[in-house]
Model the fold of this input.
Amino acid sequence: MPDFQWKREYRLGIESIDAQHRTIMEKFNALYEGITKGEDPRTISRLMSDLIEYAQLHFHDEEELFALNGYPKAEEQRAAHGKFRAKAEAIHEAYVNDPTTSPLEVVEFLEDWIENHLLTLDMDYKEFMVRLEALKKIR
Done:
């Protein structure tokens, strides 16, 4: 059973973003729990929507940070966020249109997102921020 708990290696050191990542994991776990407990399709759909909407808020906040700090890979991140939105919304729409469709596709997708996006693209941003802060201290 995928059960995402906050781990030290997920920490970016940007408290607001770290808090959002924790919330995304909590929402993911709530969705997975709803699926495994056999909640009704409306509940599953609501949990999916809640997670997708929160992720969009999170992406907006991240993208503002990229712009404020001149992050050179901001476009790569924006593109990844766009792909996430499109895929998550397509999965959700397919489930809404046919609740007999297994919602586990969204679980697999989100599991991959958390493990790969957070631990690769977001960690690259963390390294950029650490270097930026170090430069500020030197100057």
